[in-house]
Hints:
The protein is of the alpha+beta class. It has helices at residues 33-44, 73-81, 87-96, 103-111, 141-145, 148-172, 188-201, 210-218; strands spanning 51-56, 68-69, 118-121, 127-128, 135-140, 179-180, 206-207.
Amino acid sequence: MEPKANGPKGEENRRQVIDRPTNPMVTPLLSDLYQFTMAYAYWKAGKHNEQAVFDLYFRKNPFGGEFTVFAGLEECIRFIANFKFREEEIAFIRASLPNTCEDAFFDYLRGIDCSDVEVYAVPEGSVVFPKVPLLRVEGPIAAVQLLETPFLNLINYASLVTTNAARHRSVAGKSKLLLEFGLRRAQGPDGGIGASKYCYIGGFDATRNWYLGGYFTTCR
């Protein structure tokens, strides 16, 4: 009996196109210098393609509460689906790292696209608890090392706002209409867009953020 491949066939088997992150600043450069020096160390030692497993978790619930609502997963998926260094980013990394770094390392960075990375996660919007993994990331160690900082950035704030919104919903009950109106006092445009989105995920009924309503109406 001939072996047969599992999964969809023909047109359905083509790689699904996933939108880029909502914020255009979310690129592979949204990271720490430390992550690139670690990636270089793995590459220099010839260990960059060794398989590694990282778990993402938190140590305590925010606001002295008893639970957290997990959010930010969609943005993480968008990020890794479009993970690719541009030439100007490679040039910046080259200028920032010590001049002893070998040229072949930057060629290696050009080829990273996270196609060998697998992510396992609880569903976005789930109630989660401390020290329980929210995400498990598996793949070549240098590639998953470069995901650590952006994943933490995309999940920590999102989960904080979503949890706060869920706490408001819990107090208000199901019968009350909750409207988000925080754009005027938000931490800049990005903080405002993120807060509005994650308040909705956390249980608010609507937002007064005109941009957010227009963006998600036209992009979905």
